[in-house]
């Protein structure tokens, strides 16, 4: 079950590979995500050493859940992947033009997981071409509805 999607990612990037990663979260962050108070539009994934972190994900703290602590809504959060997956990602990201971006947050067996994508940036003409294809599919569906 998806909590939050990053639709902008599919507009700006060609997604070549997807990985499911666990998130290291604090208690107030889990409560806020369950309330739908997270934003991943400007987030991206960085590799430091042999670890992977998500940067720029904003989780707005709840008033009732964070009274005894001083929450940081945009702190860097660690992602949990297998070592061989991290090694594979490091090799691919070091190539020119590849980036790791957050695609969505979802639940798996009651735990909050993130789907990260190995992406290659789209040029402006690629974005226009995608938009033309989407418009043509929409027009085709409309014509079929009118014909029937």
Automatic annotation (TrEMBL):
Gene3D superfamilies noted in UniProt: 2.40.280.10
Localization annotation: Cytoplasm
InterPro entries per the UniProt record, alphabetical: SmpB, SsrA-bd_prot, SsrA-bd_prot_CS
Keyword terms, alphabetized: Cytoplasm, RNA-binding
GO biological process assignments: trans-translation; trans-translation-dependent protein tagging
Pfam family of the protein (one): SmpB
Tagged with keyword Cytoplasm: yes
Gene Ontology terms: cellular component: cytosol
Source species, domain of life: Bacteria
Single annotated GO MF: RNA binding
Keyword Hydrolase recorded: no
Purpose of the protein: Required for rescue of stalled ribosomes mediated by trans-translation. Binds to transfer-messenger RNA (tmRNA), required for stable association of tmRNA with ribosomes. tmRNA and SmpB together mimic tRNA shape, replacing the anticodon stem-loop with SmpB. tmRNA is encoded by the ssrA gene; the 2 termini fold to resemble tRNA(Ala) and it encodes a 'tag peptide', a short internal open reading frame. During trans-translation Ala-aminoacylated tmRNA acts like a tRNA, entering the A-site of stalled ribosomes, displacing the stalled mRNA.
NCBIfam families hit by this protein: PRK05422.1, smpB
PANTHER family: SSRA-BINDING PROTEIN (PTHR30308:SF2), TMRNA-BINDING COMPONENT OF TRANS-TRANSLATION TAGGING COMPLEX (PTHR30308)
Assigned protein family: Belongs to the SmpB family.
Protein name: SsrA-binding protein
Organism: Zoogloea dura
